[in-house]
Design a protein that fits this description.
globular; binds zinc ion
């Protein structure tokens, strides 16, 4: 993999938009994805967003491909409103457990941070 020039775009690791990213190329020189140039954690694009008041309703594993990835269906209610429930599909590494995913979700401040729990699985 080669790291190319800087540009403004969307990061394929944390899904932030309008941030400074570096283009990543595969060994054949094909552009494959962008990554935050200053690191996904340091580029606090969402810091101005308010915290969400949320509660986990359910966490269900939909499928798992051994040694590769697991797919989860997470239902979360926002603002203590039973009518405001969102289904969020999250891709995690294989072997993820409900407990560890739950604690990762509880550590999030808002729905954008929950979305960022998606793991990007690299394919070679
Ligand atoms: Zn990023």
């Amino acid at each position: 993999m080669t790291i190319g020039e800087q540009t403004i775009g969307e990061c394929d690791f944390c899904y932030k938009q309008g941030v400074v990213v570096k283009k990543l190329y595969d060994n054949y020189g094909e552009w494959i994805m962008n990554r935050c140039d200053h690191g996904c954690d340091k580029n606090n694009h969402y810091d101005s967003e308010p915290d969400d008041l949320f509660e986990i309703i359910s966490i269900n594993k939909l499928s798992e491909i051994p040694f590769y990835e697991s797919l989860w269906d997470v239902r979360i209610s926002f603002d203590k409103n039973e009518d405001n429930v969102r289904a969020i599909a999250l891709t995690r590494y294989a072997g993820e457990q409900e407990d560890s995913l739950r604690s990762d979700i509880m550590a999030c401040r808002n729905r954008n941070e929950i979305q960022k729990l998606n793991k990007t699985i690299m394919q070679y």
